[in-house]
Amino acid sequence: MRKTLAILSLAGAGAFASQAHAQSTTTAPAPIATAKPSTTSYVTGDTPLRDIKKPQGLSYGITLSANVNVASNKSVVGQIEGNSVLFGASALGSINYLRDRHEWLNTGSLAETWSRTPAIDTFVKSNDVLNVDSLYNYFLREWTGPFLRAAVQSAILRTQRITSGQTTYVNSETGALSSASRFNLSDSFQPFTLNESTGWFFQPIRSDVLNAYGRIGLGGRHTWADGARAITDEDDERGVVYTVLKDVHQAGAELFGGIDGKAVQGSLLYNLGISALFPFANNDDQDRSIAKLTKIGVQAAAGMKVTSWLSVNYQLKVIRDIQLVDAIQVQNALLLSISYTASSATPDKPKTDAELAKERIAALESALQTAEERAAAAEQRLNSSTYPTGTPEPAPQLEPPAAPPVQAPATTVPPATNVTPVPPPAPVTPAPQP
């Protein structure tokens, strides 16, 4: 029990530190589903999944996760007096469609985290991110084809930077100073980012242990953030420096490469993705070069499933988006999650070509044997029918031709021996008439 509580406290502390740092950036990390790294609009890491052995039609899945950390200190040396609470929840859902060469993947996720410490005696939002992604793949081959993709990312609640006392804030452009204990960073659904892209995908390596895939094409990105603020420097001697954001619109060439897979008999899931957008068309008012404005995103994630409902998840995200904010955004998250998962039926593991060929041969042999047995039974019924007495019935015979009439044989008297032959009678002379 103590070990479990220690793990919960460590995971909660790591998540709290990560989310506290995330307040200084323009976006929060995406939710981490149970033992499954998630994707974001910065790293388009949806894996093409076509397999002729997969069930055709619609499939779905949903994962609900929650985490909590509670600590209380009273007269403890080296600890802050009071109560600390961190709790969060996330939902990850998917609806996919597969039919022949067509694959349509749709995912949506929402993550919320709140914290309260003795120094700040109120609940503070430390993570709030909404992601919706739709990807269509057309498989000209088992591993390549054209694609279309659209994604949305935003925060659904207002974001504030809350401190225990009055803090001085400095505008990075005008140098204007202001002081507040609650400093507004953005409104609800701000920033709101829409990404769209089209091109060609490749998946040269496909297995449970490792998948490697990539995309090349044209992409567009639109971020509506006019008036939102981003913390860019917390160590300035004048105070905390912030930048007022503007809307960003870009279009150009897009590249992506990534890997994902499973290890430790499927208990460990991981992914790594890198994406880049070269904005040949943009609305930058400082006329900076394409190389300067190139947007780069790197994401790495790993999840270890402890039980069917408990997992440990880690995520790292690094973003270079100079046109939006002139700073490198780094985000870390470590969470121990309790989750519930529901999904459509999972198909059996695909069989190898050798196994399928063996099954086909066995099916043909079985069909041949059945046909031979039926032919033998039919022949036996034809030639070996029985009377009720059990005596075999003779085979039918053709009627023989009619026999010719029987003639009596001629009687021959053998000549007598030692017999004097009788002379013939003398002729009779008729008497004369008067």
Average of per-residue pLDDT values? 78
Helix content: 10-25%
How many helices? The count is: 3
Largest sheet: 12 strands, antiparallel, barrel
Note down, in words, how this protein is organized.
The structure is a single chain. This protein has helices at 2-22, 290-293, 353-383, and strands at 57-73, 82-99, 102-116, 124-138, 144-154, 159-171, 177-186, 192-206, 211-224, 229-233, 240-244, 248-263, 268-282, 295-305, 310-320, 328-343. With 434 residues, the chain is mainly beta. The strands form 2 sheets. A 12-stranded antiparallel β-barrel has the order 1-2-3-4-5-8-9-12-13-14-15-16. The radius of gyration is 47 Å and the shape is elongated.
What key phrases describe this protein's structure?
single chain; 434 residues; four-stranded mixed sheet; 16 strands
Quick structural gist:
The chain has 434 residues and is mostly beta strands.
Note the topology:
Layout: H1 2-22, E1 57-73, E2 82-99, E3 102-116, E4 124-138, E5 144-154, E6 159-171, E7 177-186, E8 192-206, E9 211-224, E10 229-233, E11 240-244, E12 248-263, E13 268-282, H2 290-293, E14 295-305, E15 310-320, E16 328-343, H3 353-383
Parallel strand pairs: 6-11
Antiparallel strand pairs: 1-2, 1-16, 2-3, 3-4, 4-5, 5-8, 6-7, 8-9, 9-12, 10-11, 12-13, 13-14, 14-15, 15-16
